[in-house]
Amino acid sequence: MSVPPPRPAPGAALTAALEAAADRAVLAPSVHNTQPWRLVLHGDRLELHADRSRQLTVLDPRGRALAQSVGAALLNARAAVAAAGFAAAVDRLPDRDDPDLLAVLRPGPGPADASLARLDAAVPLRHTNRRRFGEERVPDELLRVLVEAADAEDTLLVPVDRPDHLDLLGRLQRTADGIQNADPAYRAELRRWTTRSADQGDGVPPEAVAHVDGRQHDALPLRDFDTTGSGGLPARTGSGTAQTVVLLAGRTDDLLAWLRAGEALERVLLELTTRGWVAAPMTQAVEVPLTRTQLRSALVWHGHPLNLLRVGRAAPTPTTPRRRRDDAVRGSGRPPAPLRHPPVPGATGWVPPVR
Ligand SMILES: Cc1cc2nc3c(=O)[nH]c(=O)nc-3n(C[C@H](O)[C@H](O)[C@H](O)COP(=O)(O)O)c2cc1C
């Protein structure tokens, strides 16, 4: 007769759940892979702080993208705690005197959130995919799942599917891309986060971005991360009005809404990953004030645009690095060890037809 493994004592199970929450949090997407978070483990809770030293002051002066990145990390931590069998209480912006303490997550008794627990396994499989997408569009029933996932995080998700809206979005994205690239400070900031050394464990590496050869004329231009001309992915991304695009918008335009939008972003991305779909934010049009205002009045007058995602099917993509765990996580009971983000295959082995 086999003997079941000993059940961990409640305190040990709680500690393990919190450590797992930190492990998962640091795998979240973040703008330019800045990983702008500082995680602090206590015996009964995980604190998620904004690390303002990692804020993109040119692209993101208000901190909208920073807060979304921390929100995505929070969603991963919530999924890990649920997968460990715990309910969780989340306090967002709990301390008026410390606005950079964005959230506190406390596992506790009660039923775990099954809809979050089931997303936990997708966390290490989710990667921003900047390849050419196949022609399959996201079916309406899956779009409804995405709308509900965002709604669960108090965020609006608006599919951009009318041809005139897609044309407008294309114009705004091209305008925003042009405005940003005309600014030497924007380009310098981008260069800084695309030329990181391996031991820094952050930034967007050449392997994960399309090679840019000056002949790209995408209707919906992706951000040009190929600042060194060594982008490892094929130059043609085919980003255009035939692909599925969704807009995420906050109900208000403040720190809490930005944090919630990050939770929604990650929840949507994980729902897609579990079903073998891939996605990539392409957020130039929501970053530039002029185009953001136009986007709002045309597409989501009842909300505040915060993120734009292209969604599709594509071959797996190389992964991005992460910082050493002890650089991002304080108060851990684990000995410091480099956190390697192993190159895992993408969520799908589906390969788009070669054109
Ligand atoms: C708020 C936000 C905005 C982003 N904007 C873009 C973008 O405009 N273009 C892009 O290719 N990736 C964008 N990303 C994706 C990040 O570059 C990506 O998450 C980061 O490099 C880490 O890689 P990973 O998502 O594969 O883990 C964005 C991510 C976040 C959270």
Which helices and strands occur, and which strands form pairs?
Layout: H1 10-25, E1 37-41, E2 46-50, H2 64-83, E3 87-92, E4 101-108, H3 114-117, H4 140-152, E5 155-160, H5 163-181, H6 184-194, E6 244-250, H7 255-274, E7 278-281, H8 284-287, H9 289-299, E8 304-312, H10 325-328, E9 329-330
Parallel strand pairs: 1-9
Antiparallel strand pairs: 1-2, 2-4, 3-4, 5-6, 6-8, 7-8
The protein binds flavin mononucleotide.
Flavin mononucleotide (FMN) binds at residues 29-33, 65, 68-69, 72, 127-128, 130, 204, 222-223, 280-284, 307, 320.
In short:
This protein has 355 residues and is α+β, with helices and mostly antiparallel strands.
Model description:
By secondary structure, this protein is an alpha+beta fold. It has two domains: 11-126, NADH Oxidase (3-Layer(aba) Sandwich), CATH 3.40.109.10; 140-312, NADH Oxidase. It has helices at residues 10-25, 64-83, 114-117, 140-152, 163-181, 184-194, 255-274, 284-287, 289-299, 325-328; strands at 37-41, 46-50, 87-92, 101-108, 155-160, 244-250, 278-281, 304-312, 329-330. The termini are far apart. It binds flavin mononucleotide.
User: How many helical stretches?
Assistant: 10
Compute the CA-based radius of gyration: 20 Å
Share of helical residues: 25-40%
How many beta-strand runs? 9
Structural class per helix/strand content? Answer: alpha+beta
- How many domains comprise the coordinates? 2
Shape: globular
**Mean pLDDT score, rounded?**
92
Which percent band covers the strand fraction?
A: 5-15%
Order of helices and strands: HEEHEEHHEHHEHEHHEHE
Low-confidence stretches at least 5 residues in length (pLDDT < 50)?
342-355
Bound molecules: flavin mononucleotide
CATH architecture of the largest domain: 3-Layer(aba) Sandwich
CATH class of the largest domain: Alpha Beta
End-to-end Cα distance: 58 Å
Q: Strand order, biggest sheet?
A: 3-4-2-1-9
Considering the protein shown, what is the CATH homologous superfamily of the largest domain? NADH Oxidase
